[in-house]
Amino acid sequence: MKKYFVSFLMMLTAVCALGQQPVLFTPGQLLEDHGILVRALKELHPGLYRYMSKEEFNALDRQIMAKLNKPMTEEAYYQLMMPLIAKLKCGHTKWHRKDRPDDRYAFQQENLFPLKLYFRDNRAFVLKSYHPEDSLPGATEIVSINGKKVPDLIRELHRFITIDGNVQSALYSELNQSFNGYYATFIGTAPMYTVEFIQGGRKRQIRLGKVSLALIRAAEEKDKQHRQAMELTMPRAGVAVLRIDRFYTIYRQRVSCHQKCWSKNPGDRSSQ
After folding, report:
1. In this structure, is residue 158 part of a structural domain?
2. CATH of the domain at 85
3. Does the predicted model carry a pTM greater than 0.70?
4. Torsion-angle region of 70 (φ positive above 0: left; ψ -120 to 50: alpha; else: beta)
5. Are strands 93-96 and 6-9 parallel, antiparallel or unpaired?
6. DSSP letter at 156?
7. Quick one: 130 and 200 in the same domain?
8. DSSP one-letter code for 22
């Protein structure tokens, strides 16, 4: 299937520096920039009406415009507009802050949720804790965060995430990779998080302190240093197993991985 990539940047008149008081944009500024974005979608997107009709798109657009009647921050407008972008159901349509492509933490870098979660079958499990002190064991099932049940969190965040069609695995992939950022942007941040979890067949609660984006990035970078992006092994003659951990940084390892694995079995090329 032919793929299309359409990228839209938020081109607002002024951009507030991180850490400073957010700039409030006037209704006139918001409507002007909104018009530019919608016009770009209509003129450039090849599948704008694939999953919703032109009438549905225009109705949603009018609902958004009706709310642009008061001063608003860039983040507030982003939250207002993102459900319409997600309703296109096109994973190749990217819309982000100026100069911050694919940054799930573009608006919030502090008071972030402290656990890395793994989502599957409408459930969430702990992969690791970013917090240096408080933690939950790996594989612990999370029931709720700050009173919101996990299925409700998944359903709510789905409204803001761009994926192809209704591919549930793509939604889980986004949540597995960037849940903390999505949660911060579209649900909120807090200095403390009340987490309900299952332990020994019983529901329990724990209060976990917030973490910063710097702490999350440091932990992720440390993990990458211990993981190969791609690893080829031969568990037995005639069988090769290729494990792909991630698709970025993969090309630098391709040749060395190939040479390393095949040099161990120079006489066996049956599975090459």
Report:
1. yes
2. 3.30.750
3. yes
4. beta
5. parallel
6. H
7. yes
8. P
- Alpha carbon separation from 272 to 217, 250, 253, 260 (Å, rounded): 37, 19, 18, 14
* C-alpha to C-alpha distances, 182 to 95, 118, 147, 257, nearest whole angstrom: 14, 14, 17, 35
Amino acid at 233: T
What is the spatial distance between Cα 207 and Cα 194, in angstroms, rounded to a whole number? Answer: 5
One-letter amino acid for residue 246 of the chain = R
Taking only the tens of pLDDT, the chain with its 272 residues reads: 333 334 444 443 334 444 467 899 999 999 999 999 999 999 999 999 999 999 999 999 999 999 999 999 999 999 999 999 999 999 888 888 888 888 899 999 999 999 999 999 999 999 999 987 777 898 999 999 999 999 999 999 999 999 999 999 999 999 999 999 999 999 999 999 999 999 999 999 999 999 999 999 998 887 766 666 677 888 788 888 887 766 554 344 444 444 444 454 444 443 33
User: How far apart, in whole angstroms, are the C-alpha atoms of residue 81 and residue 58?
Assistant: 13
Query: Which amino acid makes up residue 62?
Result: R
CATH number, domain with residue 188: 2.30.42.10
